[in-house]
Specification:
The structure holds 2 protein chains of 2 kinds. Chain A is mostly beta strands. Helix content of chain A is 0%, strand content 50%. Chain A has no helices and 11 strands. Chain B has strands at residues 4-7, 10-14, 19-25, 32-38, 44-51, 56-59, 62-67, 72-77, 86-94, 97-100, 104-109. The chains are: A mainly beta, B mainly beta.
Chain lengths: 114, 110
């Protein structure tokens, strides 16, 4: 089944404790991205990747890192999480970055930083 | 900077009604506009994708229109059903950015 998977789905952590949220897609998509969703703000893009070893900042990259060593994986790293990073995170992918491409979304990761 | 607004924020209708959800954006230089559905605790499911050169797309009971010059899109849902209850998000794509509205939470009452 074609899908985007994220792990973990739920995470409670404390300020400053490094964490990684994994994202994997099995559709051989080149383009992958991370979003956070907050009440009243909609989804905001954190980082995106056009292909392996190619990443770029989105709207709200502060406090986050990403890497794209393999085509299928695009982990989101919080080196020193803070309470304002409490949010619902979505990973998405599409075949290419072009205008005609539909993005496929993962199920989301709900993060609480205490 | 592109801003996307969805009105209303919430909508409640009786089953069987036809309804329209609205989406507006500030910069008409977009590549495409996409409507998504989000169920509670779930990810986003793409409903319709309209390219910048198109004016509408249809899928079953759903019809989405795009007026780039006025910066507006509408999602029309015909003969609404309780299973249509969800949050509907619109998103516009320009360059490599995809910008989302805050969504309209739809409740269809039996």
């Amino acid at each position: 089944e074609a899908q985007v998977t994220q792990n973990p789905r739920y995470l409670i952590t404390v300020t400053g404790k490094k964490l990684t949220v994994t994202c994997s897609q099995n559709m051989n998509h080149e383009y992958m991205s991370w979003y956070r969703q907050d009440p009243g703000l909609g989804l905001r893009q954190i980082y995106y990747s056009m292909n392996v070893e190619v990443t770029d900042k989105g709207d709200v990259p502060e406090g986050y890192k990403v890497s794209r060593k393999e085509k299928r994986n695009f982990p989101l790293i919080l080196e020193s999480p803070s309470p304002n990073q409490t949010s619902l995170y979505f990973c998405a992918s599409s075949l290419l970055a072009g205008a005609r491409e539909t993005q496929y979304f993962g199920p989301g990761t709900r993060l609480l930083v205490l | 900077k592109q801003e996307v607004t969805q009105i209303p924020a919430a909508l409640s209708v009786p089953e069987g009604e036809n309804l329209v959800l609205n989406c507006s954006f500030t910069d008409s230089a977009i590549y495409n506009l996409q409507w998504f559905r989000q169920d509670p605790g779930k990810g986003l499911t793409s409903l319709l994708l309209i390219q910048s050169s198109q004016r509408e797309q249809t899928s079953g009971r759903l019809n989405a229109s795009l007026d780039k010059s006025s910066g507006r899109s509408t999602l029309y849902i015909a003969a609404s059903q309780p299973g249509d209850s969800a949050t509907y998000l619109c998103a516009v794509k320009d360059n490599n950015d995809m910008r989302f509205g805050a969504g309209t939470r739809l409740t269809v009452k039996p």
